[in-house]
Amino acid sequence: MNKKSFQLGICFSVMVALTVPGCQSTGRSRVTATASEPAADTLDEDLTAGQVADIQTSLARTMEQRGDLKAARAAYGRVLERDPANATAAWRMAVVTDRQGHFDKSEPLYQRALKAEPKNAAVLCDYGYSLYLQRRWSESEQALKQAAELAPDDARIQNNLGLLYANTERSREAVLAFQRAGCTPEQTRTNIAVAAAMNGRTQEARWMFERVLEDNPESPTANRGLQALAAVTETDAGVRQVGYETETSESGRD
Length: 254
Known about the structure:
About 65% of the residues lie in helices and about 0% in strands. The chain is built from 12 helices and no strands. The protein has helices at about 5-15, 50-65, 70-80, 85-100, 105-115, 120-135, 135-150, 155-165, 170-180, 185-200, 200-215, 220-235. Helix 2 packs antiparallel against helix 3 (about 70-80), helix 7 packs antiparallel against helix 8 (about 155-165) and helix 9 crosses helix 10.
């Protein structure tokens, strides 16, 4: 990536929260959140090992959902210590590890989960998104297409494919994928514009942002996008970062 693309990446990485984000599954749980996970030896002695693992996995999901990533990762790790073949624990631990930025450590966990459940579309989707974040485009596309074959109507999978296509200069494919994901025309154009800007395709990004503003002059992402492009254009020697007030949606993850 050249210097100008890197500068644009800095500006636009903050803006992704304002677009329809890429998605990793949340692992939402119906279990009521507790202060801490009970130790295995405090659970009913009549429970089987599998039942204990299920309870601990559900509690770990609760920790993950409320944002306690460190505790969730440790809890999933304890499940895997008791049951190394537990695909759900490996999958969720991989997602949490990604969210902590440790892609080198998440990869073996995804592989473990997929070895146990090679046709699990949700795992393939999250693995594909992990590879997307690492800009491993070819591998990401392979995983996401496998997921799409298994669950062609899954909006999360299609949205991630749209982001992948947008970042690899395949706008037509990106538009179709975003449409399948249920994105509005404004969301689709904004996603493509942000991807173009982050990859240094400033002319394409500017054109897309302007099309968004023709339909919605109040679009915060398009307005800030044009501001960021103008800031980088003003000086290639040193980027002047534009401050953004991000919304509550979390970039890249639900």
